[in-house]
Amino acid sequence: MSAGEKVQNIHVDRLEWLLAHGMIHPAQHGAGRKLQRDCELAAIGGYASPAWALGVPGGGGRGRLPSDVQCDAIRRMNAARVHVGPLGFRIIELIVLDGVSLAEASRRLGEPVAKMPLALRVALDSLASFYRLA
Prior knowledge:
There is one protein chain. By secondary structure, the chain is an all-alpha fold. It has one domain (14-44, 66-130). It contains six helices and no strands. It has helices at 14-20, 26-43, 68-84, 86-97, 102-109, 116-130. Helix 3 crosses helix 4 and helix 4 (86-97) crosses helix 6.
């Protein structure tokens, strides 16, 4: 590590850090948390179900169907993606869901670092509107 490099804690909760440093407001934070919850619910797979619920062994390889809760979470995530827009949702995905830093998100998107805080706030405002928090 060179003398000019900053040490970054990769285990930090990005939403909490952004809120604690005054970069987002509570409604934006709440919208991010709701999206995280929907993402978790949408991704729940067979590991969360008892073995007998996954199908009969040797029964043609059919897996279990997604639950109503999982389907609802998938629908909400898709609707949020449409509501926020493709670039805004990608910014939210990177920072809120994947936990990357603002600098890393700007690098991956090919956008200036200085633009990222405002772009994130606009995207989170739209997400808060979607979840009826703002």
